[in-house]
Amino acid sequence: xxxxxxxxxxxxxxxxxxxxxxxxxxxxxxxxxxxxxxxxxxxxxxxxxxxxxxxxxxxxxxxxxxxxxxxxxxxxxxxxxxxxxxxxxxxxxxxxxxxxxxxxxxxxxxxxxxxxxxxxxxxxxxxx
Length: 128
What we know:
By secondary structure, the protein is mainly alpha-helical. It has one domain. It is 87% helix and 0% strand. The protein is built from five helices and no strands. The protein has helices spanning 2-29, 32-60, 68-91, 97-104, 106-127. The two termini are 24 Å apart.
């Protein structure tokens, strides 16, 4: 369980670091609506990741094991709310869709970085 906790902490922290770095880069290097797209997308996906973590932790921690129907209902509710927020942001032209897409990729980039570092650690241990 130690590896899973380490990966979760890394991904959670990296989500915020990448969001802040991408948001600052967008504010300094791109038009304002593009930067707001990065920030809004990053916030949406990072908050969703955190809420998914809480839902799964509460559902899988004894003695209060939740039904998988409850977990799926919460997942789809978050999915619909996120879709509605994204629709409103794009339809009212508050954000640039490409910037929003970049922001929505924050968690994917964090997970890929965690995977690459874990592979590196695994192969370095075997080489020694």
